[in-house]
Amino acid sequence: MSGRFLGKAAVVTGASGDLGRLLCEALLDEGCSVVGIDVDAAGGELMQAQAREAGRDLTFRQVDVAEADAVAAFGRDSGPVDIVVNAAGVISYARIGETTAEEWDRVMGVNVRGAFLVTKALEPVLRDGGSVINIASSAALRAGAGWSAYSVSKAGLVAFTKVAAAELAPRARVNVVCPGALDTRMPHRLLDGHPAKDAVLEQMAQASMLGRLGEAREVVPLCLFLAGAEAGLVTGATIAVDGGMTAW
Fold it and tell me: Of 20, 26, 186, 229, which sees the most CB atoms within 10 A?
C-alpha cells in the first residue's frame, strides 16, 4: 500500500463481480474512498460490511446501470469523484440466428448504455485531473463466431471511450482496457450446461499466445496506473491485457 490515492474518491460499477471487487479492494488499499454499485445487493452489502469491519471507506449502492432514472439519481446524490471505473458487464454466447432481440438489448443495455449513463451522470462531479476507465474486452478487437452481441457491445464501448476522451479533455482522461478471456465466474456461469463447455473454455485459453486464461487480478495494475497521475498523458487509449490474443 503506497497511499497514492489518499484523499481521492472513486466509483466502481460492477463492484460485486470478480474484477470489480478486486478493483475496489485495490483502490481501498491505496487510500481511496470507494462507492461500489451493482445490481447484486447481497454481494455488495457483504463487501461493504467486510470493508467497514476492516476500517475501510467503502459504500455500496444497489443500482442497475442500464436504468437511466436510477443512474441519474445516483449521480445527483454523488459528491466529487476522481476515478470512475465502468466495470459492469454481462456476457452472451449465441450465434446471430439464435440471438433474440431481447438478449441483444440486454447486453447493449449494460455494456454500452450503462457506461454512457454512468459517465454522463458523474461528469458534473468529476474533479479536474479525473480518470474514467472503461472495461471492454478483447472481443471488441477480435471477431469470433457466437459472440455477436457481446463483441458489438464491447466495440461500442471502445468507440464511446474515444468520444468521451475528446469531450472531457483536458479536464479528465478516459481510457478503455480490453482484457482477454479471464477465468472468472462469468464465463463459467454462461457455459454451465453447454455440451461443449470444456471445449469452448479450452478454445478461449488457446486463443492467447500464453495458452491460458487470464486472471482478474492481472488486469488490476493497469487500471491503477490509468487512474493515477503517472498516466497523465494517456487518454483515448485502447489497451489490451490478453496474453497476445489480439496480436495474431
Answer: 20
